[in-house]
Amino acid sequence: MDKAKPTGTPDGTVPDATGDSHGTAAEPGGSATAPDASTSPGTDTTTPPRPVGLTKADPAAEPVEATAPTVPGQAEEAAVPPATEPPATVPAPRAGGAPDAVVPAQQQAPAERPRPLHAPDPYSTPPYGEPGPWAPAPPVQRPVPTPAHGTYLPPGTPAHGTPVPPVPEAGPAQGGEWGRYDPWAAPGALVAESGGGPGERLRERRAGRGRLFGAALVLALVAGAVGGYVGMRLERHGGLGTVELEQTSGQAGERAPDSVAGIAARTLPGVVTLHVSGGDGGALGTGFVLDGRGHILTNQHVVESASDGGSIRVTFNGGETARARLVGGDPGYDLAVVKVSGVSGLTSLPLGDSDDVRVGDPVVAIGAPFDLANTVTSGIISAKERPITAGGEKGDGTDISYVDALQTDAPINPGNSGGPLVDERARVIGINSAIHAAGGPARQDDSAGSVGLGFAIPVNQAKRVAEELINHGRATHPVIGVTLDMGYEGEGAKVGGEAAGGGPAVTPGGPADRTDIAAGDVITEVDGVPVASGEELIIKIRSHRPGDRLALTVERDGESRRVTLELGSSDPS
């Protein structure tokens, strides 16, 4: 069947009572069609066309009643009475070309429709718009939820007042309660969409809060870890990237020969560390190489325990070790010589002149303080010809050393004993021997430490003693041939009344006897230098060699006189 043409077409129309063209147009060879269900202005164009009942040409045929439109998804309404206009009867073709049946005129033109009481709605909003002449009576409407005023309606949405089909029940909304939330939806829409009651919504709300809390917790942990790492990098490196510090290039070449580094570089190869063990216990000290034959000079109190059958182990600067034997020692000078055998390539240190040293000259001390080998300290010469005595542990005076020492502020500690004190030209000018302790100058032991007052045996004296020890195994002492009264408390050194064992205080035929020095005389000066005690007189005499001439100032009965004598020699007993 062909579709009906729109209202108002000029082909075969039947005017109605109002003068509008309504009716049907018969097409040759086809059946008549009902007018198109076009709506008047203001009518919803999406409403499906209302079918019009047609009758066959056979008069016996029953007319077909038009049915009211139904809303999708809603139960069909009960039978709706036919429209006010009777169904039109249209001619139907007959077999054999018989003329068409005639349709009564009163069935072709509907009754005049009433006019609205108000002006047509310019927006054509039902039900206020002007309905078309063929619009059927509205069906029975039941109260159903409608969209809120102002809600956007997509194309195809039923007009206002049109029954809304029930929304099929859906499963739980995706994304929780707020996943499909519409602020303009009618009340109850959210419940219909969520598919659950208040209990289910509460559970979903709690589940959403749980997920939110979990996400926040994870985010906090990640943020804390990142913050901690960033803080660590900032604290340790001052930034997040790799830190590279600028560095100047090192100094090329050798150090200046007169610098501490230059002096140490030339001196260290000739310095050794001594570890001594014996019947009286062990000792630690330092020494330095005198010649290529293996002779090493050190302090007597360092190797004293080896004289009773102990052993001496020598460690060189490079770490090599060797056994050494005691060649000879002298407690009065606190000097000793040991020798290593089977060692080649030894570096000997040059000896300087201690008489040329001046106060304030820079010096460097090298040793093994507290067994820290190859330790270098520096300072200056603080004083010269400082008379000191050290030792005396035996009580008979045989272990007392008398030294006209060089004083230095270079740090010296236990273990430096016997080590070299060198000048700016890396020449040995003294042998480190004693430090200032609480009771005065004393030999270094484990109970003492540096207070900036160190004492060294002048190398001129050490050289003579070392030569005698190497050549003869013992050293000679210069003497004037008198016995001193060590208990005298006045100024100067007083000649005693008698010698030990009851002999005379002045050795017959000795240097003092030849210059008419007698018991009770007081010696106040040596070579014009005052002496305050008997110890100082001994120190001044031992700073010379046997055969040297000395000028002495002697007082007798309140009168002073000056005498000159030649020093004699004596072997230590």
**How would you classify the helix and strand content by structural class?**
alpha+beta
Give start-end ranges of low-pLDDT stretches: 1-103, 173-177, 189-194
Q: What's the SSE pattern?
A: EEHHHHEEEHEEEEEEEEEEHEEHEEHEEE
Neighbour order of strands in the largest sheet? 3-4-5-8-7-6
> Proportion of β residues?
15-25%
Percent helix, as a range, is 10-25%
Report the principal-axis shape: rod-shaped
Q: Please work out how many helical segments DSSP would assign.
A: 8
Give the tally of β-strands: 22
What is the quaternary state of this protein? Answer: single chain
Distance between the termini: 159 Å
Biggest sheet record: 6 strands, antiparallel, barrel
What does this structure look like?
This protein has helices at residues 105-108, 189-194, 198-237, 260-267, 300-303, 459-472, 511-514, 534-542, and strands at residues 14-15, 21-22, 271-278, 281-289, 295-298, 311-315, 321-330, 335-340, 362-367, 375-390, 401-408, 420-422, 428-437, 440-443, 454-458, 477-479, 493-494, 522-526, 529-530, 549-556, 559-566, 568-570. With 573 residues, the protein is an alpha+beta fold. A hairpin with a 4-residue loop joins strand 7 (321-330) and strand 8. It is rod-shaped. Residues 1-103, 173-177 and 189-194 have low confidence and may be disordered.
